[in-house]
Design brief:
By secondary structure, the chain is of the alpha+beta class. Helices cover 25% and strands 30% of the residues. The protein has four domains: 163 residues, no CATH class; 83 residues, no CATH class; 85 residues, no CATH class; 93 residues, no CATH class.
Length: 480
């Protein structure tokens, strides 16, 4: 690696271009930017009129939904046109001039470089100037990876980034609104931790003490007047569960959820009353419907042998999916009925997972329906496509999604399915529909379509009778 001591290194940028002179970078060129308020940041040039080199109207892109308007920029300096490798291999160097240092030339100097090799990380959302391992220059906004060491510098849309292991040294650029917001959030977390070291407790709110289960159990007594089967475990299926937690220096009844970005706790306090008895009344209502749907007589009306449910679902699916074999289910879900915290539950795990998780359904019928869905998916997955036909269609928009693909498939078993794909600018999804034998019992192609469109309705998936009926190739493909 490079021999220069990055701790003593200074970079002097001496070739700034003035925006006021209509001297702009090439389209897409990544630049160091001096803003009109004296701050420094960086971004790639994206003019409103990419055909005009003299156009100063546009923006510098720093990352996803992160731009600087050209009207905020005083000067720019290319970051792409330099290779520092030769200089960085000379251990005597502590200043590198980027461009000639002449009298009267506008320059900017950066120092205070740090390295990941010393286990130094930027602060979250901090925008930094980077010296890369290949000797080039770059910049980006630091985002630490969740639940693991390391991170990346975001520098362009779609979360394009420089990985931490690509960077030799970095130094912060100026504080911007995103970093300032992150600093304030961190300061707020520090203030909250300080306040919560010795929280106070309202005697009216915590009349029955500081054990949350006492409040749940008092609500449970009322629930058992209606539902003899009610248990504390059933009540706590309604998540998030309530806890007694400190917030702003006071104990509250609250729900805790994890912040997706940093795993910190987000506390939502109960605000619908001021006394312990009001909270117990609330808990009763909050968990009422959850407990109601846990009636064991409804859920386990076929008994507690899981094989009874599995066999019933298998036989139901086998009526239409005639090729279904139990060997096809080996890579699907595994199901059982087990006691979890004292209550009988349907549980499941996927393939090679080591632990079962609760599969919360309100009735035996609903559980069997879920089994049937899994079995149908497994059956279709095991039945290979041997021929396909895609009807032609123009632009079709469905509730904000665009129809991308609509393909009829003949399966190895001689049956048929249709595969539909739709999406928008950022997301999409595909779904397969089995065309049941009932559809093919129709005497005419038109009658077939009437039955088929009950499975794949035109108002949901874009193609209807008007489009499919005239298609003679499709009619032939389907055997009519």
């Amino acid at each position: 690696m490079f021999k220069v001591n990055y701790k003593d290194l200074r970079l002097s940028f001496n070739e700034f271009h003035n925006v006021s002179d209509k001297d702009m970078p090439e389209y897409g060129e990544y630049c160091l930017l001096e803003l009109k308020n004296g701050d420094y940041t960086a971004g790639s040039w994206n003019p409103d009129d990419y055909r005009s080199k003299k156009s100063t109207s546009g923006k510098f892109i720093r990352g996803t939904a992160d731009t600087v308007g050209s009207d905020e920029v005083e000067r720019w300096h290319s970051l792409e046109r330099y290779d520092l490798t030769e200089c960085l291999e000379d251990e005597e160097i502590d200043l590198i001039n980027l461009g000639p240092k002449n009298e009267g030339v506008r320059s900017a100097q950066f120092k205070g470089f740090k390295s990941f090799a010393d286990k130094k990380n930027p602060k979250q959302e901090q925008f930094c100037l980077l010296i890369m391992n290949d000797g080039s220059l770059a910049a980006g906004r630091w985002n630490k990876w969740r639940n693991e060491p390391g991170g990346a510098f975001i520098y362009a849309p779609a979360l394009s980034s420089h990985g931490w292991d690509e960077v030799w040294a970095w130094t912060p650029l100026s504080t911007d609104q995103f970093f300032a917001m992150e600093l304030e959030r961190e300061n707020e977390k520090k203030r909250e931790r300080k306040l919560n070291k010795n929280p106070s407790a309202d005697p009216e709110l915590f009349r029955y003490g500081m054990d949350i289960n006492v409040y749940y159990e008092k609500a449970l007594e009322r629930l058992r007047e209606e539902f003899y089967w009610a248990t504390l475990t059933m009540m706590k299926k309604h998540t998030p569960v309530w806890q007694i937690v400190p917030l702003h220096g006071k104990y509250v009844f609250g729900q805790i959820e994890k912040n997706y970005y940093d795993d910190s706790d987000i506390v939502t306090p109960w605000t619908e009353g001021t006394t312990a008895d009001e909270f117990i009344d609330f808990l009763y209502g909050y968990t009422h419907d959850t407990v109601k749907r846990c009636n064991p007589e409804e859920r386990f009306k076929l008994g507690t042998d899981i094989n009874v449910y599995l066999e019933k679902a298998f036989n139901n699916v086998k009526k239409d999916y005639r090729w279904l074999d139990k060997k096809m289910l080996k890579n699907s879900w595994r199901y059982d009925i087990r006691k979890v915290e004292g209550d009988l539950e349907f549980v499941r795990k996927y393939r090679n997972e080591s632990r079962y998780s609760v599969y919360d359904v309100e009735s035996a019928e609903r559980f069997i329906e879920c089994l049937e869905y899994d079995y149908r998916s497994a059956a279709l997955h095991a039945n290979e496509t041997v021929a396909s036909y895609a009807p032609e269609f123009g632009h079709i928009s469905l509730h904000g999604w665009n129809l991308e693909s609509y393909v009829f498939c003949k399966l190895q078993s001689g049956d048929y399915k249709v595969s539909v794909t739709a999406g928008d600018r950022t997301a999409g999804g595909s779904r397969d529909f089995f065309i049941t034998p009932y559809c093919f019992e129709a005497k005419t192609y038109e009658e077939f379509l009437d039955r088929y469109l009950q499975i794949v309705p035109d108002y949901s998936f874009g193609l209807g009778k008007n489009e499919l009926l005239p298609d003679e190739d499709l009619k032939k493909f389907l055997g009519y």
